[in-house]
Amino acid sequence: MSAVAPGYDHVAELRFGSWKYIRAFARSVPVGVWISALFLLLFIISGVAPGVFETHGPLQENLTATLKAPSFSHLFGTDQLGRDTFSRVVAGTGQSLVIGFVATALAVLAAIVLGLIAGLGGKWADGVISRLLEVMFAFPVLLLALLVVVVFGDSITTEIGAVALGTAPGYARMLRGQLISVRDTGYVESARVVGHPFGKIVWQHILPNAIRPLVALYTLGVGQAVIWASGLSFLGLGVPPPSPEWGALLDSGRDYVTAAWWLEVMPGLAIVILALSVTVIGRHLQARLEGRIRVDAS
Amino acid sequence: MSAIAADQVAVAAAPSRRRGRTFAQWFATRVISGIGVLWAAATIAFLLQTLTQSGRAKHIIDQLTGTQANPTKAEVAKINSQYGFDGSIWHQYIDYVGNLVHGNLGVSYYQHQAVTRIIGQQIGATLVLTFTALLLAWIFAVVLTVLAAGRHNIWSAIANFLQMLAASLPSYWVGTILLVVFAVQLHIFPVLGGNPVVALVLPALTMALPVSGFLGQVMQDEFSSALEQPFVTTSRARGITDFGVRVVHVLRHATLPGLTLSGWAVGYLFSNAVLVEQVFDRPGIGSVLTTSASNGDVPLVTGVVLASAAIYVIANLVVDVLYGLVDPRLRT
User: Which of A172, B197, B250, B261 has an alpha carbon within 20 to 30 A of A102's alpha carbon?
Assistant: First the structure.
């Protein structure tokens, strides 16, 4: 990045962190990504400090105002016990975010280990890991996650583990391919010819180049993890009921879908907006990392 | 998921070539490797099952007596020997695999019936839903691709956006929206029951939408690059209409990544059917799975998971065969 090629003088003028750089950076980000980032920020605030947005107590029942349609006093309406759906969605944000971010982090971590062994461990290791991944692919994500929840009991920890286990093979296969293509590039070969030790080549050349796409992939994966996790809770197999986790909200609203559509539509909307926001941000990161979008002064 | 789906195609897009072998030889190798995958899947499922070992006997006794009392040692021992939990792990494993070979997936802890029988009774409805959805998804994807791919206009942009949206929506939510709009508000479809064909429309549509998004994305990519090939110019020069070239020549190229993705899509649809069946309150594997999962009925859950793995393996075998039919280049 810091190398200055003759044709890129205008890039070099921008000192990282300078006002000009920040302005140019802001201009290079499309509006859709800004909106997504704003939504993600709102979600993170709701997750960290739900009190900022909650208009009512998330567990506060009001039997005189049950199953009320959305209005100014109850933005997302109320449920069968008169609890405010908006406040419950806000209160559930933290759990959904933690599940999404932690489960994806675990999956990516497992994938890095598996990918490294397969990509750099030689023919035998690659054969074994590739077969293992092939077998894991035969299990649909949701069903494998469900089996894990059945065996280990339902709690937020199992839910995270289950989603991580279900999604890890996809990342591992992608990373394996990435590591193999980086391993066979000219610069790795020259480093080997020059006589750099194996560990140094892996650490300095192979890992950074192979892992870069994972940053974007991680972001894209978070949205999917939230969707899978709330799918599990939707089946009544995630976080137990009084909790306002999004999937659990959808599960408990199911009995009232003919009378109170907002109990299903609104928490689902939160899931969709979160998933879409991280997808849009992830795709933008991908474009940046691949050099399709760059910061320049023009 | 769309990124993952793209990866599925990128990595899985190398269907096994026959490399001079006869079709029978090639097919036999594929079947054997499929059985290998299933055997390994069964082993993983078995290992997960044995993790519940200590609680299993108490679980069954609680269910039989309807109490939560602590069972005596003798009662536990009786159940353990009845279900074969008292042998060594190796012994149990050999029994398990032996039973599998004979098509026996064990007995449900709750329904006291053979797991294969319960699954057999319910899987039909789920498979009908799965394949109707796959068919719908193909129709949507092919129509959109033929009409919009490779054209740089507003319609193509809209189609593209819709596909990205469809690919990132959770099916259980789409299902709810369709149910609320078309059944509850507009009364176009019944909320529950009714004619089985009519009742299939909304759930199948729900499941088809995201898959058509994935299919459409990969098919459009391939379609656009096939449009740049010289054979397109040649065909146009011979006087075929633009639409004719698209349907007769270019579409064939675009179906290849679509086929590859379909093998994966069958597994994806099957597990989404579990959710969608719950949304629309349909009979099928979904209701079996949810009740057995919340009861802790491990043999039944494992049975369903293995059945879905088998469906995945078979679907991919079929895809490989179809691939050879569509792409003559692979038949050498």
Answer: B261
